[in-house]
Design a protein that fits this description.
Order of helices and strands: HHHHHHHHHHHH
Number of domains: 2
Shape: elongated
Largest sheet: none
CATH topology of the largest domain: Endonuclease III, domain 1
CATH architecture of the largest domain: Orthogonal Bundle
Radius of gyration: 19 Å
Structural class: mainly alpha
CATH superfamily of the largest domain: Hypothetical protein, domain 2
Length: 205
């Protein structure tokens, strides 16, 4: 466990007895951001994976990655791919449009993809949600699992809502606004809190 995890857990246990119980049931914190590949790869993968099961998404993403020459920047390459070539890899016409929009914005410099880590959370959210097909949830996942930002609460995530309903014994799923209110006390470590909530759905009472 890293020192930052220790600080997060100490704060979360003290700030919220309900979450302290969740932490006790789940156990050690194993949250780590994924640092392999590039930011462009991570956003493109998020688009490819939308609304697909893990196995199918992984297969299609593998075919998509195989289209690229490894020593050439991917954005200009992607702009040369026809819809037919992307369709052969399993990419839908709609997602092809999203991926092309990503490539155009990166190639033009509208999105400083390689410097996203220098932006604030709000700046990253604004940059990524300007891409067609990239909404707030996808941008929040990038902040959490790519950049390792410590204070992200994906209030729209159904898993987070279900975990809060279960932990707090709520009669119905909390609204995004209620998720934000409940999670306010977890700041500035809402990412770790969210990780524990997701994991809690895998643990029996």
């Amino acid at each position: 466990m890293t020192n930052s995890h220790r600080k997060a857990l100490a704060h979360l246990r003290k700030a919220d007895p309900v979450l302290a119980d969740v932490i006790a049931r789940v156990g050690a914190c194993r949250f780590e951001p994924r640092t392999d590949g590039t930011h462009f790869d991570a956003v493109a993968q998020a688009i490819v994976y939308q609304q697909l099961s893990g196995k199918a998404a992984a297969t299609i993403h593998g075919r998509f990655v195989a289209l690229f020459e490894p020593d050439t920047p991917p954005a200009p390459q992607l702009l040369t791919f026809s819809d037919e070539r992307l369709r052969e890899a399993g990419i839908s016409r709609q997602k092809a449009g999203y991926l092309r929009d990503l490539a155009e914005r990166v190639h033009s410099g509208a999105i400083p993809i390689d410097e996203l880590e220098t932006l604030s959370d709000e700046g990253v959210m604004a940059a990524l949600t300007s891409i067609k097909g990239v909404g707030p949830w996808t941008a929040q996942m990038f902040l959490m699992f790519r950049l390792g930002r410590p204070d992200v609460l994906p209030e729209l995530d159904l898993g987070i809502q279900k975990a809060i309903q279960r932990a707090y014994r709520l009669r119905k799923l909390p609204t995004p606004d209620r998720v934000r209110r409940i999670g306010a006390k977890w700041a500035p470590y809402r990412t770790v809190a969210s990780w524990y909530l997701w994991r809690s759905l895998e643990v029996e009472d």
